[in-house]
Amino acid sequence: MMLKSLLFGAAVAVLAGPAAANDAQPIGSGGSGGSGALGELNFRFDSAALMDNAPGVLDKVVAFASANPESKIVLDAYCDPIGASTYNVKLAIHRAESVRDRLKAMGVPDDRVVFAIYGEDGARRATYAGDRRVTIWSTREPLATVIDRTFAGKGEAVTWQRPLSVAQIEGTEAVASR
Asked: Which of 35, 75, 101, 117 could crosslink 28 through cysteines, CB 3.0-4.6 Å?
């Protein structure tokens, strides 16, 4: 009986593992740093075109961005593992650009949008279709935290619109005084 209980417990842990990973939110989400998941958009195979459900998801993001002007909107862009790694990174960038361009057209300033590009190397989902996504989340944490989080999660690149100083990236920008 003990062996059956152990096997059942192991089976539950194995089955719960991917589900738990799928539900994981960005590091720091819900904490005092003000990070949280806003939505997710899936894409067709080898495509960066937004699907029919995009307006509903993006309306929520725009409403959040309007109500929280101090927050950055982070776009985590992923691909399935089919194809060359360099191609998948470029495709993930194109997917993030599609989302950013639509957000910009809806009134979100593009200097508030940060790309975290994972290509095929980020957190995996149960299916390849689930891997073809851009996860949208918000943060008030310094850009350095987004950069660290991306590279810790096997990310390939982090980009943002305008040049920043190291102090701005780290969130330690000093106030000038005389």
From this structure: 35
